[in-house]
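User: Hey, my collaborator sent me this sequence without any context and asked if I could get a structure. I don't really work with proteins. Can you help?
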Amino acid sequence: MYVLDAGRLKKRISIYGYQEITDDLGQKSTRIVKKASVWAEIRPVRGMEFLEYYRDANELQYKITIRYRKGLTEKDVIVRGKTQYEINSIIDIDEEHIALEIYCTESKDKKIPEMGDGE
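Assistant: No problem. I've predicted the 3D structure and written it out in structure-token form, which is a compact way to encode the shape of the chain:
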């Protein structure tokens, strides 16, 4: 049985998701909305350097641990301060609905301007 040490969840993050809205004229558009603010542990997993379009870039990967919550998908975005993370995978540890391990990549080029600071 997995036991979550709540003392490790020291960082405040915000979870954003995409929502489809319809305006008065019936036109559909997509906007990003804040789904939740939760406490989390953020740990770097590895750094990978590679050549992308003939320029050097760093890809930083993180493991974010939070309490279990429904409705989180790989399409959502996590924000802490000015740092934005793209979700790669979500693991329900031992499928016990106690905690989630979220593996993500720090987003450097795809900033969404409508987002707040996530703190």
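In plain terms: The CA atoms of residues 15 and 48 lie 25 Å apart. You can pass these tokens on to your collaborator as they are.
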